[in-house]
Each structure stands twice: as structure tokens, then as C-alpha cells.
Write a structure and sequence with these properties.
Layout (H helix, E strand, L loop, with lengths): L12 H44 L19 E8 L6 H6 L22 E18 L3 E5 L17 E7 L4 E2 L6 E2 L10 E8 L8 E5 L6 E8 L7 E4 L2
Antiparallel strand pairs: 1-2, 2-9, 2-10, 3-8, 4-7, 4-9, 5-6
């Protein structure tokens, strides 16, 4: 007999499969391009809205200063003493998930989206951060979101009174002692110098407050001790 011939108007199964796969790939490619474009539009619109809102609130941005406490510059959180929102347990503690929803590293990031903060229960916490490089600290700036950007139109969770220290070493905190100690050194010999005690006034027209300090030496570590907030059961530190 003769080899089978394909009747006119009919397609081979393999050709049909290749055609369908090619069509799906083209459609998915266009869809991914649209998603990427939409994502960029949303990000740019959000950034523009936040910038306009910050400017309308009268915030002064210090463009001539470098933020050495920025994650993008290389700063990092090295120690935290705080009570997690919602409590903790041994498993969370072992896995490092105590602050997974509102991690301390948010303090080093530029986002001011609602909830993108370091959140902890109560009003007291101590955070040790390693700066991008040893610097002579000249000023400290603290930013909190505006009332209009919060879901419940409340900014009582903003920190109020806080102390700032500089240190040459990573402090090791003793929960039964108010002093700090460094591994291999007595607590009293630790170079932990107070830069100042400050108050965030939570002014609705000034969401960023800057405090000048008189640093007299270069230090790689910054210690932030938050002592109170503006009346909430928990505290949110944004930037």
C-alpha cells in the first residue's frame, strides 16, 4: 500500500501542539510585560504620592547628608531587646521569628508604607545597629507616618522619649542588670557614650524631626533606647 496522506484542511497533531505552545508563550510574554509595566506604574505613583504628601506637610529633607544608618548603604541590626507584638514562644525565638511581621530592619529602610515599621509591644526597646562605616555622628533624624496614612487615623504608636548612644563594640545586654557588657570585657569598661536624650514631638505638620548632636569621635555602633511612646499599647518605629 501507499504511505498515508494527510487530507486537505487537517493538521498533524504534532504541528497543532507546537502551534498552541507557541501561541501560549506569546500570550504569557505579553501578559508578563503588562504586569511589569503596571507594577512600575504603581510603585512610581506611590512614591510620588508619598513625596507630595511629605512636602505638603512641611518636612525638610536634608539632601546634603548621607544616611549611614541605611540598609542600602550597608547598615544592619545586630541586637534587639523588646517584647514582640502578640507574644513569643521558644519555637519563634529559636527560628528568629519574634518580629517577622514588623522586623527591626524596617528602621533602616526608606519605605513609609503603613505597617512597614519596627513594631514591638509596650513602649520600651533597645536596638543596636552597625552603621555603614565608622562615622562622627552629627545629627539623628526620626520619621513617623502621618495620621492620614494610618488605617485608624492614629499616630499614638509613635515613639516619644528615646536615648542615643554610640559604642565601639557590640553590647551584650544582661536582662538582670541595667549595664551593658562586651564579651571579654567588664561592663564598666565598655565604650558606650551617651549622645543625647531626645523627644519626638509627633507634630502633625512635621513628620521628620532632626536632632543635632556633638559627636567627638568616630564610632561604628549606634544604640537606640526607646523609653516611651504617645499613649498606645505598642510602638512603631519607622525610620
Amino acid at each position: 500500500g501507499r504511505p498515508g496522506a494527510i487530507a486537505p484542511g487537517r493538521c498533524d497533531h504534532r504541528d497543532m501542539t507546537e502551534y498552541v505552545e507557541s501561541l501560549v508563550k506569546r500570550k504569557i510574554g505579553h501578559l508578563m510585560d503588562d504586569v511589569y509595566t503596571l507594577k512600575n506604574q504603581i510603585i512610581n505613583a506611590d512614591c510620588s504620592a508619598q513625596t507630595d504628601q511629605s512636602r505638603s506637610a512641611g518636612e525638610a529633607v536634608a539632601t546634603n547628608r548621607i544616611n549611614f544608618a541605611s540598609e542600602e548603604m550597608g547598615a544592619r541590626i545586630v541586637d534587639v531587646i523588646a517584647r514582640p507584638i502578640g507574644g513569643s514562644n521558644m519555637i519563634k525565638w529559636l527560628l528568629g521569628l519574634d518580629f517577622c511581621a514588623n522586623p527591626p530592619v524596617n528602621m533602616l529602610r526608606p519605605s513609609l508604607a503603613p505597617g512597614a515599621c519596627f513594631g514591638f509591644s509596650g513602649c520600651q526597646a533597645t536596638v543596636v545597629l552597625h552603621l555603614a562605616k565608622p562615622i562622627l555622628v552629627e545629627s539623628i533624624a526620626l520619621t513617623h507616618v502621618s495620621r492620614e496614612m494610618t488605617p485608624n487615623l492614629c499616630v499614638k504608636s509613635a515613639p516619644k522619649d528615646f536615648d542615643v548612644y554610640v559604642s565601639l563594640f557590640r553590647p551584650c545586654f544582661n536582662p538582670h542588670d541595667n549595664r551593658t557588657s562586651h564579651k571579654g570585657q567588664p561592663a564598666d569598661s565598655l565604650k558606650r557614650n551617651l549622645l543625647g536624650q531626645f523627644t519626638f514631638n509627633n507634630d502633625p505638620n512635621r513628620r521628620t524631626e532632626t536632632y543635632d548632636v556633638n559627636g567627638n569621635s568616630f564610632y561604628p555602633m549606634l544604640v537606640l533606647a526607646f523609653r516611651s511612646n504617645h499613649g498606645a499599647n505598642s510602638t512603631c518605629v519607622y525610620r
